[in-house]
Design a protein that fits this description.
homodimer, alpha+beta, seven-stranded antiparallel sheet, 4 helices, about 25% helix, globular
């Protein structure tokens, strides 16, 4: 997948946030891969991330729990697919730990996840060219994710990541 | 995942075919990873495998087309997750090429795949300890796959693989 990482996206199926930030890839990587750091920036305020568990290897679990301002918890479970330190982090919510499918496919009643996310980092001067790319299986899923506030949400979280990283 | 490869399965969610066959892991591996060979054994007769395409790397496409005795074609698309030559081949039909989700999860109308398969090989004398393990997300999916004839089907295909490998 290496060569394709920064390829053009499919605008019908993909969502992408691309920005150059003035913290180096090493700090962005740590922010994305250390649970204690993830809890500090991952969820746009006033939501919070109250739990995070990750097993940083292909097939490993990536789990976060987000808490709404009203105190309601939302668990997100995914599985890491590809990990290149300081450069590329890929996971999907279609699978859980050990690559096990989440929910059912034959059983149409069950929600089985809907995206694969790529965090792609490249050095840019003293900062980082940051790409968050999210692949979907259908145009309806892409649109739904967009309507859920993908750009504002992932952008606000990145602002929080950068603010945190500048204090590290 | 290495240490877990031969772990106990979850009988509620998993299906497994385990057998010792008298062809070496190297030939079983070739049978599973060369399209020209896959076409010769992959589908229990009188079904045939009329097309096979594979990109043998994590994130790579695994596509087969099976033809029924009545001439109807059925395409299967998956994505490789983990590849260790002569030892372990892992793929899922929840994802397609480049880890893209297949079908939709938010869109409940769409079938999004339902399994992750592990082919695990270990030398056993001059032969191979062969484990085909299939993970599902729900008990209903496991049961449905079992009722579709998992054990007979994967067993008959393995017989064909061994018969072919003995002539190689």
């Amino acid at each position: 997948m290496t060569q394709r990482s920064f390829d053009a996206i499919d605008p019908n199926l993909d969502l992408q946030l691309e920005r150059t930030v003035d913290v180096p890839p090493q700090l962005v990587w740590r922010a994305w891969t250390e649970p204690a750091l993830i809890k500090q920036w991952f969820t746009p305020a006033p939501w919070t991330t109250v739990d995070c568990e990750l097993d940083l290897r292909p097939g490993g679990l990536f789990r976060t729990v987000m808490r709404s301002p009203e105190g309601q918890d939302h668990e997100n479970v995914g599985c890491f697919l590809d990990i290149v330190e300081n450069s590329r982090l890929v996971w999907t919510d279609m699978l859980g730990a050990g690559y096990r499918p989440r929910g059912g496919g034959l059983n149409e009643q069950t929600n089985c996840g809907f995206f694969t996310a790529f965090i792609l980092l490249e050095p840019a001067g003293k900062g980082t060219r940051y790409v968050a790319r999210v692949l979907h299986g259908t145009e309806a899923d892409r649109k739904r994710h967009e309507d859920m506030g993908f750009h504002d949400g992932w952008g606000a979280a990145l602002d929080q990541l950068v603010a945190m990283a500048k204090k590290m």
